Amino acid sequence: MSYKFHRQVSAWRQARAGGPVSGQGLPVIVLVPSDPLLFNASTGDMAMISAVMHFCRETWPDARFVVLTAGDVADEQVRQAGAVPCRVLDGSLSFAETMTRIVSHEPTHCVTIGADVLDGSYDPVFSALLLMITDMLARRGVKCVVTGFSVSASPYPGLGTVFNETCQDIVFNLRDPVSFKRFGRLSRARCELVADVAFLLKPQMDSVLVRGVGDWVDVQRAKGRRIVGVNVHPLVLELVDRHEIDKVVRNLAALLIELVEEASLSLMLVEHDFRGTSADAHCLGPLYDLLEPRVGEFVFLSKDRLDAKEIKAAVSKFDGVISGRMHLMIASLGGGVPVFGIEYKEKMVGLLNHVGLSAESLTTAREIISDPVAVRQKLSVFLADLDATRAAVVAKGPALKAMSSLNFAGLTNG
Q1: How far is Cα 1 from Cα 153, in angstroms, rounded to an integer?
Q2: What is the DSSP letter of 276?
Q3: What share of the chain is helix, strand, coil (3-state, %, to 5)?
Q4: 113-163 pLDDT, tens digit each
Q5: For a tag on the chain, would you pick the N or C end, based on fewer CB atoms within 10 A?
Q6: C-alpha span between 221 and 261 (Å, rounded)
Q7: For residue range 209-254, what is the model confidence (pLDDT) as tens digits?
């Protein structure tokens, strides 16, 4: 990996200079997605992209979108979203060829979706590629922003050099205070603290699927029960430990059965990511199979896929959410709903800090395996404090939306 990374850095240094883009017409906005293969198979990605496109269309009603892609699936999904795919991220092109294809669209603006792919903790070569393309567009006079992203506890050290050498017109937006501090240790590049752009996503309250969730919620409330959403997925364990995911599911099922029976809870299992081996279904299907024989009357797993706007609408009807997905937590918090997180990549604590909540509302897959009694105690405290936590989250909502809007400062200033 180190050799490939350093070879890429060398190629970028040789290719990054270039003349200005000649775009003179309507705004043409390049989107650099965090998943150029599947585009929106992650509901979190869908939430961020939808929020970005909505902002841009409100600002420039005639704007056109060009999305950088890496495969046929993404190309088709981009077209369905009303944008134009530009196949440059499949690894087959040189930097010069990549820029030729992008510049042919005469871009005026670029939005790079930061998410959690820019610190190299998954793939430093891919992280560097997204940063380098953004840099080369900025050097050519395109207004570029990088929306709020996370920095894990172990970012790839070599990326500090890439961040430091990017065009000084780029401001890197960090989406939580912990990531902001980590980025400051990694790089000297300009950075700002914002909130995740998905806090701006507008819920779709009137869809058929959301009304179906609402009907189920109404039935459960009529029985005097509180409603809690639940999400867990394979990535809550690192790859080397992934073989133990069945232990996570079994122990979590036992805890939830206790809470359903003793705390008058009803549970909706919420699918939020549909990408291959990391899809939520690999955990939520087995979890439902364990819950249904014991507490099936109080458990719901939709057979239909809710999109990002529908999920934000659906979870707003809940009393709380237990989530292994950060963007499900964001959807919940954005609707004033308290969250209990199953941490991974050490990034959820920053989100909780952002909304004024403590890390006591966090567990880990390892703790679920090794100390379910402790997890049970944490969940009991979380449930006992739901009303007070909801009031605090609702009060924080306007400030979070204002901080989320800061993601776009670099697009509209000047």
Answers
A1: 20
A2: G
A3: 55, 15, 30
A4: 998 899 998 899 999 999 999 999 999 999 999 999 999 988 999 999 999
A5: C
A6: 15
A7: 999 999 999 999 999 999 999 999 999 998 899 999 999 999 999 9
Say how many residues make up the chain: 414
Cα gap 4→14, rounded to integer Å: 16
Q: How many CB atoms lie within 10 A of CB 173?
A: 30
First to last CA, the chain: 40
Q: Cite the beta strand spans of 140-214 per DSSP E.
A: 143-149, 172-174, 191-193
Evaluate whether 101 touches 86 at the Cβ level (below 8 Å): yes
Integer-rounded Cα Rg, in Å, for the chain is 22
**Which residues lie below 8 Å from residue 345, measured CB to CB, with a gap of 6+?**
116, 121, 150, 152, 153
The per-residue b/e assignment along 243-266, b for 16 or more CB within 10 angstroms, e otherwise, is eebebbbbbbbebbbbbbeeeebb
Residue 181's CB is within 10 A of a number of other CB atoms, namely 14
Nearest of 67, 110, 65 to residue 86 by alpha carbon = 67
**Helix (H/G/I), strand (E/B), else coil: 275:** coil
> Which residues, in sequence order, are CB contacts of 390 under 8 Å at separation 6+?
319, 336, 337, 338
Q: Are 53 and 33 in contact (CB under 8 A)?
A: no
What are 260's two structure tokens? 């359903």
Residue 321 CA: distances (Å) to CA of 181, 187, 410: 28, 35, 34
Contacts of 361 (CB under 8 A, 6+ apart): 338, 339, 340, 341, 352, 378, 382, 389
DSSP summary character for residue 317:
T
> 208-400 adopts what CATH topology?
Rossmann fold (3.40.50)
Contacting residues for 180 by C-beta, under 8 A, at least 6 apart? 174, 191, 193
Question: How many of the other CB atoms lie within 10 Å of CB of 19?
Answer: 9
Beta bridge partners of 196: none
Looking at domain 2-194, its CATH class is alpha beta
Whether 208-400 and 2-194 are alike in CATH topology: the answer is yes
In the chain, domain spans: 2-194, 208-400
Distance (Å, whole) CA 43 – CA 46: 5
| C-beta separation of 193 from 180 below 8 A | yes
Quote the distance between the C-alpha of residue 20 and its chain's center. 33
CA angle, corner 392, sides to 391 and 398, nearest 5? Answer: 100
